[in-house]
């Protein structure tokens, strides 16, 4: 209505917020359009054109020549006049990829290879096509990085006994990246991809007791995917150190298809969501990172060296200190350094078992830290705490930053470093929003003041700032539209104003999908948005559902972020 439009304009939103939807389609505001950019199975190389079948998916021979499954974090780069997208493929759905698999588990080594190839990272070139953007098939930049891609490691844990395997006795040449969830970009124009739920791909063929570290990281038993039955690399009874080679932040140079990705051990090993890089006042590199698990921590890495445009980047992500966050109940906070002195652990152990190091120094248990986004207009950082079914009781008592028991809605915490300096060891924090349902609850579960029946949502997850300083929030929650979630509809993308706290709904996803990953075309006229694990037959209207990156633009050609 006119009133909604006028109110949105007054709050600084350039669009009229939309209502909820429960269908298998995408919805965007009036005056905006969308269409797919690239779907699971779309060819990156002409030899794979037509390889995708709506009935059977992609054959194994073509599985590393197409766009991977379950799109997640992504970034846009420009190189020599070419526009490159780097896009994570987080996880695989065997029932979608393997129509013949019993109980959704692979039965052969070929099926395992197919699934492995559907994860990882895609680098692809895009170019203007029919008034929007399209994939440049056969671009020299196009590349798939999978479980099988040869990598290297740097930082204090590289080459340590903890990361040596039979295949790599030097502990310097890990293979592959997996469960690539959120993303980041370095200030020098490379891509950061973050390994999250890597634990789910390792299993134990010969039963033995789990080590305390395996328990803390959820590694052991039979895996969800049975890779360990067909490839000993995934069998922790044969290769106990292989999981230590996953759970890292990996740097990829999208401009050089021959480059070897680097796993940066200095940034710690946990279920990495994303990696948000900023700079301290003195020029040191700062990376904020969340560990997405109930009761795990928020981390900050600070380099020892400083950097300015044009200077060499050696050592910036391999020589520094890892910190973990303590959120005090008086809304102050501290970064606690993880060192041999503070933890009683060796430098290698601190990095490989960062969770245990964080516990040693008394970090604050959080409600599943997902994406972290830094405000480009001031020194202020936001972290989506998606939800936490285990919050409350003695094992994980509530605290001021995670204030609700059995937190099914989530909240977004933000902090401002002391003196506006990301290198400072203390900060002030507050809750930007507590998600909730004011139609169902009248207590804390109704959410904070900026949550209304018109904009409500649950489980904030993806987040990114647009260049105008607006916070884009993506959700990965309960889309049943029933009970505690009645009136919230499908997962969605909203825009939050950091100044006023106001939040407005911009997009809704097909039922079953989460919205994750957001980047823009270089001219900011098109937003690229990730749609992961859709239901129905989205977006083709028939056949299998296909996770996809979509493009959203304004009919009048104005910028949108
Ligand atoms: Fe892959 Fe925590 O989301
Ligand atoms: Ca996901
Ligand atoms: Ca996520
Ligand atoms: Ca999530």
UniProtKB/TrEMBL annotation:
This protein's UniProt keywords: Membrane, Transmembrane, Transmembrane helix
Keyword Membrane recorded: yes
Positions in coiled-coil regions: none
Lineage: superkingdom: Bacteria
InterPro entries: PhoX, TAT_signal
Entry annotated with the keyword Membrane: yes
PROSITE patterns cross-referenced by the UniProt entry: TAT
PANTHER family linked to this entry: DUF839 DOMAIN-CONTAINING PROTEIN, SLR8030 PROTEIN
Protein name stated in the entry: PhoX family phosphatase
Organism, scientific name: Mangrovicoccus algicola
Lineage, uppermost ranks: Bacteria, Pseudomonadati, Pseudomonadota, Alphaproteobacteria, Rhodobacterales
